[in-house]
Amino acid sequence: MTETKLIDRFNRNLNYLRLSITDRCNMGCIYCVPKDLVPKLSHQDILTYEEILRLVRICVNLGINKVRVTGGEPLVRKGVYQFLKELNRVGGIKDVALTTNGVLLYDNIQKIKSAGIKRLNISLDTLKKEKFREITGVDRLGEVWKGIMKAWEMGFSPIKINVVALSHVNEDEFIDFADLSFSYPFHIRFIEHMPIGESRMKNTDPLLITDIKKKISTMGKLVSVDKESSDGPAERYKFEGAKGEIGFIGAISQHFCESCNRLRLTASGQLRPCLLSDINEDLKIKIRAGCSDEEITETILKAVAQKPSTHSLLEDEKISVSSQMSSIGG
Ligand code: SAM
Question: How far apart, in whole angstroms, are the C-alpha atoms of residue 5 and residue 29?
Answer without folding.
Answer: 38
